[in-house]
Structures are given as C-alpha cells and as structure tokens.
Design brief:
This protein is an alpha+beta fold and about 100 residues long. The protein is about 30% helix and about 25% strand. It contains two helices and four strands; from the N terminus they run αββββα. Strands 3-2-1-4 form a four-stranded antiparallel β-sheet. Strand 2 and strand 3 form a beta hairpin. It is globular.
Length: about 100
C-alpha cells in the first residue's frame, strides 16, 4: 500500500496533462523506449495512467510496494527538452548494445 504522502507527491509531480517520455518499462507489452505520452491521472495505488502517443494506455509503475525502482520515465516540459531526452536515450541504448 502506498503512503498518503508519496501519493500526494506523485500527484503533484505528475498532474493530468504532464508530458513524459519512456526510458524503460518492465511490462512485456510496453511501448518502445523513447515513446512519449500524456499523464491522465495518478490512481490510488500510485500508478501513472498514461495515454501513449502510439494509442496505448498502459500505466507506469515507478516503484514496487517495497520501494524498488521499476519503470523509468522522464518528465518533459518543451518539445526541445523532448528531443534532448530522446537523443540521450538513443545514445544510452547504443552504449548498451556496443
């Protein structure tokens, strides 16, 4: 069960309309890294409900119940920031494949 303070923090950090870009998701049905999406809400379990730009609506789980990091996203504020983040993710992916 998520603590109330953590839930409030998530809702403050990711209000509806927040644009994000995916870095990593553990779900086998996950969008590809670099996919952008819009936060619809944060549910009572602390999952980010996201409408991904590819039409998917898969939720993001940032941490397991015991605090272990799970999915990774980046909050983006401008299109320029999105491009910079995507370039960084692409370079990171290339480094891992080398």
């Amino acid at each position: 069960m998520i603590r109330k303070t953590k839930l409030e923090e998530l809702r403050s950090t990711y209000p509806p309309g927040t644009r994000i870009v995916l870095d990593h998701m553990s779900d086998p049905q996950a969008p590809v890294p670099g996919m952008q999406g819009t936060v619809v809400a944060v549910d009572d379990n602390g999952q980010l409900l996201v409408n991904w730009d590819n039409g998917s609506s898969l939720s993001v789980i940032l941490h397991t119940d015991d605090g272990v990091p799970l999915d990774r996203i980046h909050k983006i504020r401008t299109e320029e920031e999105a491009v910079t983040t995507l370039n960084h993710l692409g370079q990171h992916q290339e480094d891992q494949n080398a």
